Amino acid sequence: MELGILREGINEVIATTAGEYRENEGDTDTGTITLRPNAAPMGIFCRKGKIRMRVYRGTHTEENMRRHGWVVANVTHDPVVFVETAFGDIGEERFTEITNDGKTFYRLKDCEAWVAFKCAIIHAGEEVTIFELHPITEEICSCEVHPHNRGFASVIDATILGTRYVMFRDEAILEKIRYHRDIAVKCGSDREKEAIELLDKSIE
Question: Is the pTM of this model over 0.70?
Answer without folding.
Answer: yes
